[in-house]
Amino acid sequence: xxxxxxxxxxxxxxxxxxxxxxxxxxxxxxxxxxxxxxxxxxxxxxxxxxxxxxxxxxxxxxxxxxxxxxxxxxxxxxxxxxxxxxxxxxxxxxxxxxxxxxxxxxxxxxxxxxxxxxxxxxxxxxxxxxxxxxxxxxxxxxxxxxxxxxxxxxxxxxxxxxxxxxxxxxxxxxxxxxxxxxxxxxxxxxxxxxxxxxxxxxxxxxxxxxxxxxxxxxxxxxxxxxxxxxxxxxxxxxxxxxxxxxxxxxxxxxxxxxxxxxxxxxxxxxxxxxxxxxxxxxxxxxxxxxxxxxxxxxxxxxxxxxxxxxxxxxxxxxxxxxxxxxxxxxxxxxxxxxxxxxxxxxxxxxxxxxxxxxxxxxxx
Length: 364
Known about the structure:
By secondary structure, this protein is an alpha/beta fold. The protein has 16 helices and eleven strands. α7 crosses α12 (about 295-310) and α9 (about 250-255) packs across α10. The longest helix has 17 residues, at about 15-30. It is elongated.
């Protein structure tokens, strides 16, 4: 997915697509022995909670697998920094009758050739201007004052847009022209794959599948809690800590995504609470059938999560039983199930021998 933002005149990318692009750029540079300092600093623009920080962690994992090098990430939240945290602290040098600057912690990186450092300068656009000046020097010159970054360091910056109702300062145009700019957006299909891989609660995935717009809600000026990919991950953690009891966890859920969205989510969970037994579906003996779209969405998400969790041990017979059962759903739901099923790595060979699935695919 790639479009052009009308307001910023830069490409709109999901976190997944951003990771693919940066992995290719830096992977080719590292493998080809190219100097990292010659690559313009990427600047990731986007609203709070859209997944920019998670993207950096994914990038580190991809580069480690691709290059075989150890990747160390230094995550710097510039909004919490003072100029001394970047410039260092001056101390007297009695021999030279001058001052020298103690090296800040962020410059204490491993310069070894088997290591790649990623310096992630987050919340740059929200930081005080004195901090921004030092951070921009890092991005452009790879140094601040007397301190330089090692040659094996990748610099990536991120910040909120002035339209995101966060504290944000406009970047000077001359500086803009010396960076690569990406606008990070939330997109449900990409997020759903991440959610399945990261064990996000299946009822959250099902709820958002019914209405993708709930993944990210633009907050009103006075809103403190609102729905974002990050806050939905918080809700999943809260549910897990409450053994999945969404009634008991109500206040904590509302504290993450706001009162209105919490009531909508809980209403959905109540409607989907009487799902057919998953074990019986796996065994091919389930006679119950879900009533209502909310229950169907919840059941599909629960099945996908269960298959993903047991992808190494689930049998072809069990997959065949599941597909035979889901084929009774309306065609759109079977298509949704098949689409999610094909994203689960490790069951490809079993799916090839799944008679029920293949007969449906031939017909549809």
